Amino acid sequence: MRIPLDDDVKRWYQAHVNAGLFSLLSFMGLDTSEVEAEGWLVRTADGREFIDCLGGYGSLNFGHRHPRIVAAVKEQLERMALSSKLLLNAQLAALAHELAAITPGELCRAFFSNSGTEAVEAALKLARLATGKPGIISARAGFHGKTLGSLSSTDREAFQAPFRPLVGHFSMVPFGDAGALEKAIDDETAALILEPVQGEGGINVPPPGYLPAIREITRSKGVLLIADEVQTGLGRTGRNFACEYEGVAPDIMALAKSLGGGVMPIGATLGTAAVWRRFEEQPLVHTSTFGGNELACAAARAALEVLVEERLAERAAATGERFLAGLRQLASEFPQLIADVRGVGLMIGIEMQSQDLSELFIAGVLEQKVLIAFTLNQPGVIRIEPPLTIPAGIVDEVLSRLRQALDTVAQIVSQFASP
User: Which of 9, 253, 298, 308 could form a disulfide with 270 if both were Cys (CB 3.0 to 4.6 A apart)?
Assistant: First the structure.
C-alpha cells in the first residue's frame, strides 16, 4: 500500500478530516505528513528531520519503533492479530501478571482498554462500584481525558462547556493542598483521582509530603485513591511510576500512552483485590471489544521488559537533570521570556511570561526542527517530553536550538517594544 502524496493528504484533511485542524497546523508550518520515525527522530514528506521532544504527548517513552517492541508485535502478528474473545487470552494474562509484579503496593488485578481516557473511565466506574458511592474528587488544573466521565474530572472550561451537563457528583480541590481535600470529603465520596505530577495542567510537581498526606487522608476516611499515571508512568519521571517517589501506593491506577511501547495503543486499569471484588461478582459489567487484544498486549509486555532491562527510569532521571540544568541556564539568560522551568525526570515544563510568547517560542523552535507543544490546560507552559532513550549529545543539540529560537523571539519582542 503506497503512502499518499502530501498534496493529497492536505486536500483530504480539509475535505474529510477537520478543516479547522488543518488550518491550525498550516499556520504553525506543520502542514506536511510524518512519513518515517526512528528513536528520537521524525522525518516528513517535505524532507525535514525533527528531533522529537513532544514524544506523542508522553506516548513514546521508548522512542519511535523500538526494535524489541516492533519484533514482539511482528511475532504475535504471525500467530494471531485479534481473537474470538471467547477463550482465554495468553498475552493478556501474562501482561496482567507482569504489571502486578512491577506496580506499587497491592495492585494485582487488571482491566485493559485502548486509551488513557478509557482507563480513567474504568477507574471511575470501578470506584463507584466498589464503594457504592457516587462522589469523585479531582484536582484543579488536572487532566484525565475527554470522554464524558473523564471530562467531568478534567479542569478545563473550554473542553467542558460544549458538553454540559456533565456527569454529576464530581468536585475539585486545589492541587497540593491536603487540607482542602480533607474538608471536601463527605459521606458520598467514593474516590480521589489525581495525577502524581500534573501534565496538561502545566507540569506541576506537588510539594514534598503532599502525596503521603492525601494517601493517609483517603485511607482514614474510607475513600479510594486513584493514581492517574497515564502520562507519568513507565519511567517518565525518573521512577517506574511517579507515586513511588514518596512511597505512595494507590487503590486504583490508570495507565496508557507509553504502555504500548510506542507501537500499539493500550490502556490499563489496575486495582487491589479488595477493590476488584465487585468486578469479579459481575465480570461482564464493564468490557471492551478491542481492549487487551493480543497485539497490544505483546507490545506492552515487550515495553515492560525494555523499561526494566534498559533501566529507562534511571536514564530519565539522569538525562532530565541535564535537560533541566540547561533550561534553567536559558531561563537566566532570557528572564524577559521565561518565567519558570520545572519538572522531574524527562517530564519538563517551560513557563513563558505570557501565552503570546509561548506561541512565538513554539513557532521558533519548530523552525529549528524540534517538536514541542504547549500543555492543554495551561497554554503558557511548553512541555518537554522526549523519548527516554534520547542521548545526552542530542539533549545538548536541542538546548542549542532552543537558545537560537529564544534569540529570535527576543529580537521580535525588542522590535515591537522599540518606539
Answer: 253
Q: Quick check: is 5 in a domain?
A: no
Note whether 348 and 301 are same-domain residues.
Answer: no
Q: Indicate which residue of 22, 257, 323, 374 is catalytic.
A: 257
What is the domain count for the chain?
Answer: 2
Is residue 28 scored above 90 in pLDDT?
no
Residues 288 and 322 in one domain: no
Active-site pick, 52, 177, 228, 251: 228
Residues of the domain holding 345 = 32-61+311-417
Q: How far apart are CA 128 and CA 117, in angstroms?
A: 17
Last residue of one domain, picked from the residues 275, 309, 343:
309
Q: For 5-27, what is each residue's pLDDT tens digit?
A: 888 888 999 999 999 888 888 87
DSSP-derived pairing of the beta strands 34-38 and 267-271: unpaired
Q: Please state, in angstroms and rounded to a whole number, the distance separating the CA atoms of residues 195 and 85.
A: 32
Catalytic residue chosen out of the listed positions 22, 50, 143, 175: 143
Q: Is 228 a catalytic residue?
A: yes
CA angle, 383 then 214 then 320, to 5°: 30
> All 3 cell numbers of residue 183?
474538608
State the CATH number of the domain containing residue 396.
Answer: 3.90.1150.10
27: annotated active-site residue:
no
pLDDT bucket at 418, cuts 50 / 70 / 90: low
Which CATH number goes with the domain that contains 209? 3.40.640.10
Burial class (CB in 10 A: 0-12, 13-18, 19+), 250: buried
The reply to whether 9 falls in a domain is no
Q: pLDDT for 276-302, tens place per residue?
A: 999 999 999 999 999 999 999 999 999
Report yes or no on 86 lying in a domain: yes
Whether the CB-CB separation of 200 and 257 falls below 8 Å is answered with no
Q: Report if residue 16 sits inside a domain.
A: no
Q: What is the pLDDT of residue 419?
A: 58
Question: pLDDT digits over 219-263, tens only?
Answer: 999 999 999 999 999 999 999 999 999 999 999 999 999 999 999
DSSP characters over 328-396: HHHHHH-TTTEEEEEEETTEEEEEESSHHHHHHHHHHHHHTTEE-EEETTEEEEEEE---TT--HHHHH
- Cβ distance 202 to 347 under 8 Å? no
